[in-house]
Structures
1.
Amino acid sequence: MRQFISESLPDQKGYLYITGKDFRYFRQVLRIKPGDMVSVRLPDGVLQNMTACQVDDKAKKLVLQVCASTGNEAEDKVLTRGVQATELNEGRKTEYWLFQFLPKIQKLEQIVKQAVEAGVSVIVPVIGEYTEKSSVMALDNPAKLERLNKIIREARQQSGSPVDTKLMALVSLEEACSLWKEKCSEDSAAFVLYERNEKSRSMHSVIGDREIKLAAVACGSEGGLSVNEIEKLTQDDLFIPVHFEGNILRCETAALYGMAALQVIINKG
């Protein structure tokens, strides 16, 4: 774990109380003990070094206290390695969205995890022509949504991402297009990954020397995207079709591949 994601701020005395599953993780996995320091991502996005000042195994409660680092890792015994949002965002001013046509839930879980690790801000699941009814029904289940949000939290903790990734409610293709129309502007760019080479353009040619503040990738589910879906997405150049030469990628691979390619081009990597 590179950071601990806290759902609450420290109290006025600088204390943060850890209980339940989080307590078990700290004790059984990290084996934290009094004096150890961890990086805590607070709800406001700040990464705060905190020290374990009290560990009560009987009450199953851990108390963390805000502290100042000495700058000596060996002395501080920092168990996690988070990254300040300000550090990561120096030179990176782009917000990334992923419009993911709903695949099987197991694959969606993997896509969500990888999107979080890649620093995606918003994940929008979209009902497509090839989406299975069982997947739609699964997202109506509060337990499944809770699991997906748990995956997001764990992925942020493991990767150290300062981006507060949000999973939006399931939408139709029309709703997805309307949503992006409301968000896009002159400093945005959106692409749809397509297995065919028809009307395909390169990300480089579309982005050019522009400074992109908002970017999106749309990716199909198993079976890809239908001709009708591509037509709706690309109408009025809302999404630009992109075809990557080479092997046809699985949907869970394509989403990460496309997002990584877009980030490299925008960041002039």
Note: The chain is about 35% helix and 20% strand.
2.
Amino acid sequence: MKVIDILKGDHKPFTSFELVPPLKGSDINKLYSSIEPLMEFKPPFINMTSHRDEIEYRRSPDGTFRQITVTKRPGTVAIAAAIMKRFDVEVVPHVICGGSTKNDVENLLLDLNFLGVQNVVALRGDAIPGEKYFTPTPGGHRHSNELVEQIARMNRGQYLDDTLVDVVPTDFCVGVAGYPEKHCEAANMEIDIENLKRKVDAGADYIVTQMFFDNSKFFSFVEKCRAAGISVPIIPGIKPISTTRHIELLPQAFSLDIPQELMRELVKCRSNEAIYKLGIEWATLQCKELLEWGARSVHFYTMGKADNIREIIKRAF
């Protein structure tokens, strides 16, 4: 079932989750064990992140360095197939621009289509580790709206090879990312909303936001989107703080603010256990307010951890 149809359905608010594939060489059961505790909440879909290959320089015995390409996590198609075989849930793979040519994207989408996957999230992806700015792969897309356009064309039966005959259109529902506190590379919020509208105009069906800790920023973001003519559903994304490291890591990695009210409580915590409990309490309050506001769903960034997410859902939903 398509995510957009789920969002438009007549049902009580629901939860969805984003997980990270296990590292290459890891046991697939680790992925299953991160999903199983969440299935009691009957999520209609689970997002699965995608990760580009990385470039590393390794020293040879003669002292010189050689450049190698490293794949750290299994492929999107294999992970989607494994989850669909094991669980009764829609899988929403991330499709990214980084590290892929347009042909790579088309082939990935065809594989997913043959597998029966109906939903994808189209993202630009991050810069290569060590690079400050995103550099598109030669023959690939620079911006995610271009990726959305390619998917939309395939949904109309338009492939890269325009000499094909009797082609069968794909039928993907496309999600895209939104940033309540502005994408870190956007000049300002207005420009960021314009960029988001380009993705929607290109064919995106819904938006799922980056994590945030201040609901007022999400509410303001939705208002700005609606004022700009963006009418597709917007799903709020939530992640509870759970360790001392998150206090510095999350703002740096995701270009977001931690509200001063939350910071005052975090500095009082003397252990990770105390921060973990506070993270659950704060995210629970966020979810309750979002549901009262009228959110049809809440998307949780699990980072492979389920216990705190389960507690938040039990308290808020």
Note: The longest strand covers residues 90-96.
